[in-house]
Amino acid sequence: MSLLYPRLSRRWLPAMIRYAVIGSLFAGVYGILHDQITYSISPEYFTRFKFTQFQYADLGFPHRVFVGEIGFLATWWVGFVAGWFIARVVVPKYPPHDAVRYLVQSFVIITTFALTAAMIGYLVGLQRRSNPDFSYWQGFAVSHGVQGWPAFVHVAYIHNAGYIGAFAGLIVAIWRLKRMKGNPDQLVKPIPRFSGWATQQ
């Protein structure tokens, strides 16, 4: 059964969509917190770049609030896609409580990879700041009116690395679930079961 071209049972769809929504909310909150931190490193990355990208979402609130909006809008879809693909593995195989447990475990893996990659991006960007040659970025910086190039490039490294890390974490999470798909007792120690709308099918 392909993850990209699946044969779906209608009875699976409500749970799969719910899990994808959970993923989008999880990723959105991560994006809000992440961008508050990177805004502190380079406000210009947002005021000169991201604010233009997401100008449709500018409701006139203070910059910090707008940064939070951008953080959510830039990441919710990543969580939705990740939740959908993970649900493709767990919903057909496991009962609702177990499916939610494995979904959360998978998002812990993805978040760990994303944070680790972002930290690597931070360190690489920190080293890059010590290099005075920003000629590669000059055209972009001039066209956007960027003054603080080192900080701007630093944050660009963090953001790009974070996306790469999240994608790698999704691959690892799906690989892990599929490898143990036929033997759920081999999965890591369960976390407490969830109840409520997310576990109902």
How would you characterize this protein structure?
- By secondary structure, the protein is mainly α.
- It has one domain (11-199).
- Helices cover 73% and strands 0% of the residues.
- The chain has helices spanning 13-41, 43-53, 63-93, 96-129, 135-144, 149-179.
- Helix 3 runs parallel beside helix 6 (149-179).
- It is elongated.
The tally of beta strands, per DSSP, is 0
Distance between the termini: 21 Å
Radius of gyration: 19 Å
What can be said about the biggest beta sheet? none
Model regions low in confidence, pLDDT < 50 over at least 5 residues = 183-201
The average pLDDT value, as a whole number, equals 85
Shape: elongated
Task: Report the sheet-strand fraction.
Answer: under 5%
Describe the structure concisely for a colleague.
The chain has 201 residues and is mainly alpha-helical. It has helices at 13-41, 43-53, 63-93, 96-129, 135-144, 149-179.
Name its key features:
6 helices, elongated
